[in-house]
Design brief:
12 helices, Nitrile Hydratase, Chain A, two-stranded parallel sheet, 2 domains, mainly alpha
């Protein structure tokens, strides 16, 4: 098969959006606006060093290590950096702990400030105007839209992110996970449960 055929086969597997991104990248590179090496380094960072798997590792360690949990709740920026997982965590990261009486939820009403380093790229809905407005005015209704219905006596606390201060939710540890390793626990932690619009996965699903 010729090189041209290889290219055709490769491009046929790409979506229309991927093809448009590839074309834009090519044009910007040719005009000198984009350094391919820097772009590759950025992509690699988000795939390996930044993302929700980082936050999941933080949550799992907090579930297993009481001393780390205390440190995380006292100064999340310092605690996360102590793990050597990432270089920086915004200007100030705060971890909000869910309890049987309080459920935390994160929003950014002004724009879309988000703890990228521990949660990865923000979901589209996080940046949408309906979420940003309703999360404050009707948090219980928003959670219901996500399929999460909480008992009436559970207080919902909404944290509004800013350019200086970002938040992540420390969800409650699922029952039936006693003795689990950090790695196994991390598999239960989803991006949404660290935003507060979901709960961790059921341990039965990993059994």
């Amino acid at each position: 098969m010729s090189h041209d055929d290889d290219d055709a086969e490769h491009h046929s597997e790409m979506s229309e959006m991927q093809l448009r991104v590839r074309a834009l990248e090519t044009v910007l590179t040719e005009k000198g606006y984009v350094d391919p090496a820097a772009l590759d380094a950025m992509i690699e960072a988000y795939e390996t060093q930044i993302g929700p798997h980082i936050g999941a590792a933080v949550v799992a360690k907090a579930w297993n290590d009481p001393a780390f949990k205390r440190a995380l709740l006292a100064d999340a920026t310092k605690a996360v950096q102590s793990l050597g997982l990432i270089n920086r965590v915004g200007d100030h990261l705060i971890a909000a702990e869910n309890t049987p009486a309080v459920h935390n939820m994160i929003v950014c009403t002004l724009c879309s400030c988000y703890p990228w380093e521990v949660l990865g790229l923000p979901p589209v809905w996080y940046k949408s105007a309906p979420y940003r407005s309703r999360a404050v005015n009707d948090p219980r209704g928003v959670l219901a839209d996500f399929g999460l219905t909480l008992p009436g006596d559970v207080q919902i606390r909404v944290w509004d992110s800013t350019a200086e201060t970002r938040f992540m939710v420390l969800p409650m540890r699922p029952s039936g996970t006693e003795g689990w390793s950090d790695e196994r626990l991390a598999r239960l932690v989803t991006r949404d449960c660290m935003i507060g619009t979901g709960l961790p996965e059921s341990p039965q699903e990993l059994a």
